What we know:
By secondary structure, this protein is an alpha/beta fold. Helices cover 27% and strands 32% of the residues. The strands form 2 sheets. The chain has a 7-stranded mixed beta sheet, with helices on both faces. Strands 6-7-8 form a 3-stranded antiparallel beta sheet, with no helix packed on it.
Amino acid sequence: xxxxxxxxxxxxxxxxxxxxxxxxxxxxxxxxxxxxxxxxxxxxxxxxxxxxxxxxxxxxxxxxxxxxxxxxxxxxxxxxxxxxxxxxxxxxxxxxxxxxxxxxxxxxxxxxxxxxxxxxxxxxxxxxxxxxxxxxxxxxxxxxxxxxxxxxxxxxxxxxxxxxxxxxxxxxxxxxxxxxxxxxxxxxxxxxxxxxxxxxxxxxxx
Length: 206
């Protein structure tokens, strides 16, 4: 999977544009209402989803495995936030606790063990009362069931690209033990002018 994403980036290409996703806007507005000050973004990519939190006056720290993506965040989006370079599998990268964590898309690229570890690691880095929001792809997506089936709701869509598709049951199963608060459907625009169904999962650390 690492090789897939590394080859997708070039020094002058913003793969999905510079505008934040609908889910990032949702999360930043939600965090602003909650009074969140410090945000951790695992899988920050080249930063298109980070800027909207910065614009809300929040301090943002990212985690990103691709040095090319980090270079794009600096050169193309002008983001000079702290970014830990490495895999989310190696979290935590610091001893800080954050009152908001936002993770867009990344988790559904992992296997069951990787997903469970990422949720646990993020939950541990939340302050008491802090919230984390994960954006996951829904089983209602048209590509569900395509590619080699690896396990229940988990498919290899392309060589090196695996995807796990969520529904209410799997959200309850994976996020329930870690403060599941609510979840809601959201349509995310795609570069071709269409959209894909995602789900925003909100958890709170009691």
